[in-house]
């Protein structure tokens, strides 16, 4: 019995998109990849096989072996649009290492009921919208913020555990008296 396999065009690199390229609409989560079978908006199936995992943005294009380029587009997805005291709200979002799209009149994050509740408690107005998500790149030129979860797969810790008994007592004798035997520039009499 013989088996027939379709051989997909291979994309081993990413280049700049050009006008007229076929496109592929991808959510923010889907735009982080290394190896995956994909289908363009025009119906072209191909295999992305990049040298390393990377985040893709609009303006990037998969470079197929035959010279075809398939431009990346940010697909619409469910977002939380946030208005209010934007600097303060942005600080709280950033403190949680949450990807955030910063706009002049609002902030946008992927819909997350826990963050939405926290932001509402801080006075934000939060509206659910459907739009492409184009968050700021990560710090130090890394391009993508990976979040900061505390699940078992994280592979990092935050220093020594505090699960052991220890005493932070401040019950040792000490003196805060200001009585001492040197002078403070006072004239001596006598």
Please, could you describe this protein's structure?
This protein is mainly beta. Among the domains are: 10-74, Urease metallochaperone UreE, N-terminal domain (HSP40/DNAj peptide-binding domain, Sandwich); 77-141, Alpha-Beta Plaits. The protein has two helices and ten strands. It has helices at 86-95, 113-121, and strands at 10-16, 22-26, 32-39, 45-55, 60-64, 69-74, 76-83, 101-102, 107-110, 125-132. The strands form two sheets. It has a six-stranded mixed sheet, with no helix packed on it. Strands 8-9-7-10 form a four-stranded antiparallel sheet. The longest helix is centred in the middle third of the chain and has 10 residues, at 86-95. It is elongated, with a radius of gyration of 28 Å. Keywords: Chaperone, Cytoplasm, Nickel. It comes from Mangrovicoccus algicola. This is Urease accessory protein UreE. GO terms for molecular function: nickel cation binding; unfolded protein binding. One of its GO terms (cellular component) is cytoplasm.
Compact overview of the structure:
The protein is mainly beta and 190 residues long.
Rg over CA atoms: 28 Å
End-to-end separation in angstroms reads 118 Å
Main sheet makeup: 6 strands, mixed
Structural class: mainly beta
As a percent range, the share of strand residues is 25-35%
H/E element order: EEEEEEEHEEHE
Number of helices: 2
- Tell me which CATH architecture of the domain at 10-74 applies here: Sandwich
């Amino acid at each position: 019995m013989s088996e027939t396999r379709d051989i997909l065009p291979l994309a081993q690199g990413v280049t700049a998109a050009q006008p007229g390229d076929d496109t592929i609409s991808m959510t923010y989560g889907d735009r982080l990849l290394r190896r995956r079978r994909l289908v363009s908006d025009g119906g072209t199936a191909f295999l992305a096989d990049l040298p390393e995992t990377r985040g893709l943005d609009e303006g990037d294009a998969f470079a197929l072996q035959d010279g075809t380029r398939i431009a990346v587009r940010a697909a619409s997805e469910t977002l939380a649009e946030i208005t209010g005291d934007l600097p303060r709200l942005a600080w709280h979002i950033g403190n949680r290492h949450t990807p955030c799209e910063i706009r002049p009149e609002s902030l946008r994050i992927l819909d997350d009921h826990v963050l939405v509740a926290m932001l509402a408690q801080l006075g934000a107005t939060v509206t659910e919208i459907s739009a492409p998500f184009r968050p700021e790149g990560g710090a130090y030129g890394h391009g993508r913020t990976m979040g900061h979860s505390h699940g078992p797969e994280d592979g990092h810790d935050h220093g020594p555990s505090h699960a052991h008994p220890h005493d932070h007592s401040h019950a040792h004798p000490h003196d805060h008296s200001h009585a001492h035997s040197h002078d403070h520039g006072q004239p001596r009499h006598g």
